[in-house]
Write a structure and sequence with these properties.
Elements: H1 13-24, H2 37-56, H3 58-62, H4 71-96, H5 102-110, H6 128-145, H7 154-182, H8 186-205, H9 217-222, H10 230-248, E1 258-260, E2 265-267, H11 273-283, H12 287-300, H13 302-331
Antiparallel strand pairs: 1-2
Helix pairs in contact: 2-4, 4-7, 6-7, 6-8, 6-10
The chain binds benzoyl coenzyme A.
Benzoyl coenzyme A binds at residues 45-46, 49-50, 53-54, 57, 84, 115, 117-118, 137-138, 141, 144-145, 205-209, 214-217, 220, 226, 230, 280.
Amino acid sequence: MVAVHTAEPGAPGELAERFEAVVAAEQRVEPRDWMPDAYRATLIRQIAQHAHSEIIGMQPEGNWLTRAPSLRRKAILLAKAQDEAGHGLYLYAAAETLGVDRAELTEKLISGRQKYSSIFNYPTLTFADVGVIGWLVDGAAICNQVPLCRCSYGPYARAMVRICKEESFHQRQGFELLMTLMRGTEAQQRMVQDAVDRWWWPSLMMFGPPDDDSPNTAQSMAWRIKRHTNDELRQRFVDMTLPQAQHLGVTLPDPELSWNEARGSWDFGEPDWSELQRVIKGQGPCNTQRIDRRRAAHEQGTWVREAAAAYASKRATAGKQATASKEKESDV
Ligand code: BYC
């Protein structure tokens, strides 16, 4: 059991009390407010990990951009990947309000000191994977992220509102793609079923380890960063997804799935938690490839960052000169 504390030992009493009162009253903690160091560190860890997931999450889908089966599907996929880049940027900006720099966070990602979601370490073998990512992965993301719109930290909560709106659009496009394939040939239907078989268990693992093995949940819930436990959200996802799977006509690869009348929920089997731990530790099918690609993109982008910084400093100097000459004019 993790010790839950809301105030920092030795924290300035009045400030700590105010922080606790704001959290308890469901108000927002803002960047200018005093906050416990551990609260700040937890938010940086979670928001950075979330931002990295959005950026790395473009890679599995990017694999299909040049091979989409039609112009329409290509335009949709391109727009989705662009949305994800945008989500990454909002989230890095939210993390920066906590006093960290985006360059530092990127450095930590590519040197393996910060994590990103386990789900993006699996390969996308067919175009049906694009649909299944939209349906299951974005569906899981929605279950996990809608409650984050009520997170106690203002900039993160506000970033999540727009992100969630776009995620639900992504989920519907995935479902629509899969419906189209399921109305197609037998080979297309088999392709969908194969993708569902490969992505189902990793999607359940996205919610994190089971509650009794989740060291951060108790404290994050006390601070109202997380609003539900990993297992609660996983159950919500299973309950939401089952009727959709039936509508699509696919089978979920879990023989233990059964409706529990008493609970009013679906019972389901245990994911292979050792697989989640292996993937988190860097031993998933695509971990090395994902980080190598991210590192290369970062290095190839050096000239863009340098040019943007030079342009910004030129504009700042021009702005200062314009203000100085205006002041001179008004002196005359
Ligand atoms: N993968 O105590 P726990 C998207 C780590 S983007 C990797 O339960 P916590 C999308 C965890 O960090 C999806 N690591 O932790 C994008 C911790 O290690 P550290 C990303 C995981 O933070 C593009 C340790 O295991 N979503 O949807 O209370 C296209 C113990 O876990 C994972 C977010 O980031 C995992 N699956 O809860 C399509 C949402 N699970 O950090 C879609 C925001 C756990 O102590 N994040 N770990 O070294 C969260 O809600 C929470 O951070 C988590 C984990 C539920 C993920």
